[in-house]
Amino acid sequence: ARSVSTMYCRTTHYVRINGRANGTGPPSGKRLFQGQESFEQAPMYVAVMTYLGFGLVTLFGYFRDFLRAVGLEKCHIAKERDEQKDFVPLYQDFENFYTRNLYMRVRDNWNRPICSLPGPVFDVMERVSPDYNWTFRLTGKTIPNVINMGSYNYLGFAENNVDFLKTVAERVQQYGLGVCSTRQEMGNLGIHQELEELVAEFLGVESAMVLGMGFATNSTNIPALVGKGCLILSDELNHTSLILGARLSGATIRVFKHNNMQSLERVLRDAVCSGQPHTHRPWKKIMIMVEGIYSMEGSVVCLPDIVALKKKYKAYLYLDEAHSIGAVGPTGRGVTELFGLDPSDVDVLMGTFTKSFGAAGGYIAGKKELVDYLRSHSHSAVYASAMSPPVTEQILRAMRCIMGLDGTTIGQTRVHRLAENTRYFRSRLQEMGFIIYGNDDSPVIPLLLYMPGKVVAFSRAMLRRKVGVVVVGFPATPITEARARFCLSAAHTKEMLDKVLFDLNEVGDELCLKFSQRKYTSRPKEQHHNNNDLNKDFKQDSL
Amino acid sequence: MAWVEVPGQEKVLKPLLNTVIILGLIKCANFSPQAPAYHLILEGILILWIVRLLFSKTYKLQERSDLTEKEKEDLIEEWQPEPLVPPVSKDHPSMNYDIVSGPPSHNIVVNGKQCINFASFNFLGLLDNERVKQKALASLKKYGVGTCGPRGFYGTFDVHLELEDRLAKFMRTEEAIIYSYGFATIASAIPAYSKRGDIVFVDEAACFSIQKGLQASRSFIKYFKHNDMEDLERLLKEQEIEDQKNPRKARVTRRFVVVEGLYINTADVCPLPALVKLKYKYKVRIFLEESMSFGVLGEHGRGVTEHFGVNIDDIDLISANMENAVASIGGFCCGRSFVIDHQRLSGQGYCFSASLPPMLAAAAIEALNIMEEDPDIFSVLREKCEQVHKALQGTPGMKVLGESYAPALHLQLESSSGSRETDVRMLRRIVDYCLEKQIALTLARYLDKEERFLPPPSIRVVVTVEQTKEDIDRAASCIREAALSILK
Q1: pLDDT one-digit tens code per residue, B152-202
Q2: CA distance B147 to B156
Q3: What is the enclosing helix (H) or strand (E) of A166?
Q4: Nearest chain B Cα to A484, which residue?
Q5: Of the residues A7, A303, B59, B226, which has the fewest C-beta atoms closer than 10 A?
Q6: Residue A12 has pLDDT above 80, yes or no
Q7: How many angstroms separate the Cα of B478 from the Cα of each of A76, A294, B393, B396, B432?
């Protein structure tokens, strides 16, 4: 009989491991600062009802398609030009089945236009649809002061305080908005270099490079690092930009289960032992690609375990800190700091400025050789516009603030505030009996709604109560796990959170959203105590 | 049971053995003393063989066994990956960026030297425009800098809707969609429509972001010679023949032609009217990338469709960035709603990226205002382009590549030294000489190994409306001097 380990080693190529880490979540190794991570499974009936729900809508979809086909229902779909009717259809009918029959009916819950700062509260533009969401009309009215639980404004740097933005305004005056050239040609401004030095200092690495778009940071740099004959081990829930970058690189891609270290080790071990498919030559490089915080799960990467694995198997580690930089760690340095790891343990540190810094763009940081190589070989350094100078200034300002270089403790206070808000909001939601996913420290909080009908009802009900929430369903999540997602901000006050919690409690009862079967002990004193402890820890750390 | 290793072996060997045994037994049963001697001998051999088969050790078709734990550990121990990145030498041509201190506008400070800018794609001089700046400042005051979210999740601002509306009106199309980065625009648009199995015909001179979009689409890519309509037609005809062989497949294979309006790599214009004819003849859709021609060509700056007087509805999708003539950041696609709307759910760079900072969108709106109010700006630009084009003719040892009305020309060596490296070095010396004389130029940069068809090395000369007659003459004579002394 075969031993378990031989089975591992024989796992054939192009393994695609589907399925998800459920139940208890990944095994925790050396967790220093990190809190618990939970992925509670819903009762069986929920899944049954969810599938039933989808089945019903699908049936109706077919029915209505039939009505449209025989001309009993008006067809709102944009049509091909008459001149091009005999061309090969641009879209296959079945491709758009769900868009036409499901998404269309509920699309008022996405792309809601706003007309103010995306701060802790914003003004949503009211829109109405005369034809069940096929078209929208803006009424010109606004729904003012909606509490914003959707924007990635973790540290509250989406702000328009004139004093804070003084330097940004100066840069607009001085530089204008664009750059009109690439970094390698005539777009390498002094201010970009200033930012790169600051980013390197902030992260505690040798060197850094900044780019004008976060998405492109992944998709244009990964191909410069790996190529044919290399292997990318990618977490199954990685962001599209990472997947696109991996695909553009030409490297072989294998997927491991979300944050599952056994799965990763199995794939790694097999890769090193059996080499490339067909030729069986050893891989040139193996790169593990993970994210710091997963934006749909709220989970935090098991970084210590991954670092240990990568060292054991001599793989390289690419860490995307889009959601974690600024948002976790006692001083906002991201997941490396959260786990007390040395940033140099991670080969490629990537992150974006869109979230915690309230700006736009991304960075890649690491050893000097790495960044030098990327400066000369990154697609975006050669072909894409350099970063807008006022945007650059916003990042400089926010980063200086977090680091305390502006001579204040505002940044540090915000990092603490976010951690407090996160713990508070998470524990209250759990007490109320909602199923929420992810790590205790993660400011991204998914609240599971499961059934498609509830997703829509929830989002609309919350907007009526003037709370702006983000809901996501299939295909961004597994089909049975539609959810709402809250992104906490340091700018949220306790009153705002309490109002949101109050509304959530009521809507949760109304719509029967409290699926959790766990019992949580009542919070008040204990939680407060914890928060104070947390603060002490932070203070000691920042000294 | 080690040989279970090779799946199927068991199934092959056992029945074979069984057949032989059964045959043997039948033979034995028929045994009679009247049989001829050779028969007996034969059957005797057969029986012996059966006995041998029965008692011999089973053999393996393929000698292979599992690695033991020890061997695996050794393999893991042994394996040495390549370094993450190869070392880059200090004098790599792209290692030492020119440093621009202060704004990259008409007067630019490069490496500490005050120069006149002939390198930034600021064609209309809008980078330094006071009106644009004021609008951006007003937007900054209201919205701050970032949007902190993708379009789907509260990242849609009134400014974005206004800009999309304005772009659609400006281009006279039904709908426009904006992206937050120029590079990601066409690179996301192509794979939103063209999927695995579809066919894309593309010009060899197509820019890098088109190449990346094609790669992401995983479609069949067929390159035709630059601006060669006969070559394109040849490929289309070939495809037609192919289609007749398999009409079922042909009915679901989408086909596209991807071209640029003004090619960034060659500075010449695509033969759009001829393309439109081919489009209807062979039923292919045209995607047109207009980053260099939007806000440049045509009486109102609408680009290459206006330049040729082609009906814009005949082009299925137009994409351009707002990083050149518009002097902001980002890009857009426009066309009929039937086509464009699809990207709102399928354009990766649109759905999965934070939206454009409102102040950059506000700046783009104001730039459109200026372009609409004062269409003369385009004829001024055209005049300057012609001046520059003319002034650069007859530069010793160099040739000018591009149309006379193209705002970003290429100066190439008339005869290559044979080595790309030497050519680049020589051109770089010309650029340095001009920098010294206060004319800012730049080499056109490429990733040599990544480009599908690497263009020859060249110096980029960018025309803007802010350049005066004197500036142009000075630049031209400066380049001439440099070429004379360096190329000899």
Answers
A1: 999 999 999 999 999 999 999 999 999 999 999 999 999 999 999 999 999
A2: 8
A3: helix A166-175
A4: B153
A5: B59
A6: no
A7: 62, 55, 13, 12, 11
Residues 6+ apart with CB under 8 A from A198: A396, A399, A400
Residue A373 near residue A206 (C-beta atoms within 8 A): no
pLDDT at B5: 41
A189 found inside a domain: yes
Q: Give ipTM to 2 decimals.
A: 0.88
Which of B84, B207, B212 lies closest to A316 in CB terms? B84
B79–A314 CB contact, under 8 Å: yes
Which strands sit side by side in the sheet containing B442-443, from one edge to the other? B398-401, B408-413, B458-462, B442-443
The CATH number covering residue A388 comes to 3.40.640.10
- Other C-beta atoms lying within 10 Å of the C-beta of residue B3: 16
Answer whether A91 sits within 8 Å of B342, measured CB to CB.
yes
What CA–CA distance (Å, rounded) separates B351 from B360?
A: 19
CB neighbours of A514 closer than 8 A, spacing ≥ 6?
Answer: A432, A433, A434, A508
- Would you tell me the crossing angle of helices A214-225 and A368-377 to the nearest 10 degrees? 100
Q: Of the candidates A114, A215, A388, which has its C-beta nearest B184's C-beta?
A: A215
The answer to whether B320 and B291 have CB atoms below 8 angstroms apart is yes
How far is C-alpha B138 from the chain's CA centre? 36
Q: What confidence tier does B7 reach under pLDDT thresholds 50, 70, 90?
A: very low
The whole-angstrom separation of Cα A299 and Cα A437 is 7
Residues of chain A found within 8 Å of residue B215, distances taken between Cβ atoms:
248
Residue A461, domain member (yes or no): yes
Tens digit of pLDDT for each residue in A319-371?
999 999 999 999 999 999 999 999 999 999 999 999 999 999 999 999 999 99
Do A289 and A385 reside in the same domain of the chain? Answer: yes
CATH number for the domain spanning A152: value is 3.90.1150.10
Give the pair of three-digit tokens for residue A92. 């296959």
Residue A517, SS3? coil
- Topology given in CATH for the domain delimited by B97-126+376-487: Aspartate Aminotransferase, domain 1 (3.90.1150)
Domain boundary among A381, A403, A425: A403
In 3D space, the residue among A327, A241, A210 whose CA is nearest the CA of residue B148 turns out to be A327
Tell me how close the Cα of B33 comes to any Cα of chain A, in angstroms. 50
Q: How far apart are CA B437 and CA A219, in angstroms?
A: 39
The domain defined by B130-373 carries CATH number 3.40.640.10: yes
Contacts of B292 (CB under 8 A, 6+ apart): B121, B260, B261, B262, B263, B264, B267, B324, B406, B407, B408
Contacts of A117 in chain B (CB under 8 A): 142-144
Secondary structure class of A177 (helix, strand, coil)? coil
Report the C-alpha gap between A269 and B76 in whole angstroms. 8
Q: Which of B84, B99, B348 sits opposite A190 (nearest CB)?
A: B99
Q: State pLDDT tens for residues A137-179.
A: 999 999 999 999 999 999 999 999 999 999 999 999 999 999 9
How does the average pLDDT of chain A come out, rounded? 88
Q: Is A169 on the interface with B (CB under 8 A)?
A: yes
Q: What residues of B are in contact with residue A111 (Cβ under 8 Å)?
A: 151-152, 156, 344
Q: How many domains does chain A have?
A: 2
Closest CA to B311 of B319, B320, B302: B302
Q: Find the Cα–Cα–Cα–Cα dihedral B460, B461, B462, B468, rounded to 10°.
A: 160
What pLDDT digit, counting tens, does each position of A25-66 carry? Answer: 333 433 444 567 888 888 889 999 999 999 999 999 999 989
- B313: tokens are 């509805």
In a domain, A85, yes or no: no
Angle at A70 between CA A66 and CA A76, to 5 degrees: 75
Ordered by start, the domain boundaries in chain B are 97-126+376-487, 130-373
DSSP assignment of A63-123: HHHHHHHTTSS---S----GGGTTSPPSS-GGGGHHIIIIIHHHGGGSS--B-S--SSEEE
